[in-house]
Amino acid sequence: MSQRDLHDVVHAQILVVDDEADHADTMAEALRRLGHVCTIVTSASQAEEELKYGNFDVVVTDLSMETEEAGLRVLSLTREHQPEAEALMVTAHGDIATAKAALQGGAYDFIEKPLDLEVFRNLVQRAVETVRLRNANSRLQDRVEAAWGFEGIIGESPAIRKVISTIRQVGPSTIPVLITGESGTGKELVAQAVHNQSKRAGKRYVTFNCAGQSESLLEDQLFGHSRGAFTGADKDREGVFEYADKGTLFLDEIGDMPLTMQSKLLRVLESGEVIRLGTNAAQHVDVRFVSATNRDLRSLIDESGFREDLYFRINGAEIHLPALRERREDIPLLINHAAGRFAAEMDRPAPDFTEPAMMRLISYNWPGNVRQLFNVVQRMIVMTEGSRVDVGDVPDDIRLHEDDEHLHLGSLAGVGLDRLEKEAIRQTLVMTGSNREQAAEILGIGERTLYRKLKEYGLK
Q1: CA–CA separation, 406 vs 404, rounded Å?
Q2: Mean predicted lDDT score pLDDT of the chain
Q3: Which residues, in sequence order, are CB contacts of 120 under 8 Å at separation 6+?
Q4: Hey, how many other C-beta atoms are within 10 angstroms of the C-beta on 104?
Q5: How many domains does the chain have?
Q6: Per-residue buried b or exposed e for 395-414, using 16+ beta carbons within 10 Å of the residue's own CB
C-alpha cells in the first residue's frame, strides 16, 4: 500500500480474538501499520468482557479456539453488545462450511489461513469503511431529526432517542399503546407519531379527551346513540369508535375515566364490538387503540380507582415521556426550534439567545414542560425587539424564580468521587456522541485512561 493510500485510511478500533498469540500479534501489527488501534484477547470469554465494555468498529476472530466454534460465540456476542460493528471470521481451509454459516449469522466476511496480509488488510479496511459510512449516515439522520424533529418530536437526549426508537418499533404493529408522562410533555405528538408510523397512516386518526366528561356524555361520545335513545336524540349518531373504524383512536387522560365506563371500554376492546345507546345491536369496529395519562395508573389500581384488567389490556406497549427537567440537554434545541417557528409566523428572522439567557432557561425546572417552554419562547419572540434575546428579556416569573438549582448543587455533598467521575464521563460521552477522543480531551485525560474507566464503571 502506498504512502498516499496510508493517509486515506480511516483509523478504527479493532478487536482481535485468537488463541494463538503469535498469530494474533501478526494480524494486529498488520493493522496497526495502517494506524488502526488494536486490542488482542485470546479466548471468547475475554472477548465477551471487551465487547461488553469497549467500543469497536471491527471484530476479527478465529473460528476454532477453546472450542471448535468459539468464533461463532464471539460473533453472537458482537451482535449482542456491538451491533454497529462488523465481524470478520478467520478460518482454516476445512472450516469453509462453518464460515459460510457465519455469514448467514451476520459476519461481514471470512478469510482463510494462512493469511495473505495484503488481502487481510484490504478486507478489514472495507469493513471499517462500511461501519463509518453507516455511522455517518446515522449521525446525519440524528442531526436532521434533532433540528427538524421526528414526527415533530424535538430532542437528541438518550430519553428521547428511546421514545423515538420505541415508536418506530411499535408503530407498524397493532398492539395497544399507553403513553405516560406529565402534562405538557408531548403525549399527543407521540400518539400521532404512532399512527403515522403504522399501516393505518392513510386512515382516520381520531382523538378524544376523557377528562371532565360526565359518564352519560362520555358513553354517548364513545359509542354513539340511536334515534330516540333519549330526549333530543332525533337521529342516529356514531361514536368515536365507529368514526375511527379501520384507523387509530387516541383516548387522552384515560386515567380520569369513571370506573363504570372503564368496564364498558374493556368490553369493547375485548370484543371489538360497540353497542349504541338505545339499541341492542352490536357493530364490529377495527381500531388501533392508543391512550395516554398524566396519572400513575398503578397507584390508581391500588386505590381502586382504575381497573387492573383494563390496564393490562391498554398497556400492550408503554411509552414514557420524561419531564423536561429530566432532559435539560434538549432545551437549547427546543428553544431554537420554537424561536424559528414563531419568528417565521411574524415574518421576521429568528433572534439569537445570549448565553446568560440560555443558561437561565436551561436551569429553570419547567413544571409545565415543553408546552410551557414554547409559550415562554413565543412571548419572548413577540416582546423582544432586535436580533438578540438577553437574560433581561426572559419573563420575570422565569428569570427571578428560585428553583432547585442550589439544591442540586448542595446535593453533591457526601457523594462519592467515583460516582461523580462516572456521571461526568457518561454525560461527556453523550455530549460528544460517544466520540472517545473528543470526550477524553474535554475531560483532560488520555484515551487509554478513559477506556480503562469505561470498563471500570461499566460504561460504553
Answers
A1: 6
A2: 86
A3: 27, 30, 111
A4: 7
A5: 4
A6: eeebeeeeeeeeeeeeeeee
CATH of the domain at 18: 3.40.50.2300
Q: Hey, what amino acid is at 187?
A: K
Q: How far is the CA of 349 from the CAs of 148, 163, 283, 340, 342, in angstroms? A: 17, 32, 54, 8, 10
**Is there a single domain that holds both residue 173 and residue 308?**
yes
Cβ-based neighbour number of residue 312 at 10 Å:
11
Strands 224-225 and 13-17: unpaired
Question: Would you say residue 104 has pLDDT above 60?
Answer: yes
Query: Does one domain contain both 17 and 37?
Result: yes
Q: What is the pLDDT of residues 291-335, one digit of tens each?
A: 999 999 999 999 999 999 999 999 999 999 999 999 888 888 899
Paired strand residues for 250: 207, 290
Task: Please report, as a single letter, which amino acid is at residue 101.
Answer: A
Sorted by sequence, the CB contacts under 8 Å of residue 183 that are 6+ apart come out as: 294, 368, 369, 371
Q: Domain containing 424: what range?
A: 412-457
In tens, the pLDDT along 223-281 reads: 998 888 788 878 888 999 999 999 999 999 999 999 999 999 999 999 999 999 988 88
Q: How far is the C-alpha of 439 from the C-alpha of 416, rounded, in Å?
A: 22
Cis peptide upstream of residue 83 (ω within 30 degrees of 0): no
Q: What is the CATH classification number for the domain harbouring 426?
A: 1.10.10.60
Q: Return the percentage of the chain with pLDDT > 70, whole number.
A: 89
**β-strands 282-284, 273-275: how paired?**
antiparallel
CA torsion sign, 453 to 455 to 456 to 460?
positive
Which residue shows C-alpha cell 391500588?
A: 302
pLDDT for res 408 = 42
- ∠ CA(306), CA(307), CA(309), 5° rounding? 145
Residue at 447: amino acid letter: E
What was the pLDDT predicted at 5? 44
State the cell numbers at 328.
Answer: 435539560
**Cα-Cα end-to-end distance for the chain:** 33
Give the Cα separation of 82 and 56 in Å (integer).
Answer: 7
pTM greater than 0.85: no
pLDDT at position 143 is 57
C-beta of residue 75 within 8 angstroms of C-beta of residue 44: no
Query: What CA–CA distances, in Å, run from 49 to 41, 147, 271?
Result: 10, 37, 50
Dist CA 32 CA 27 (whole Å) = 9
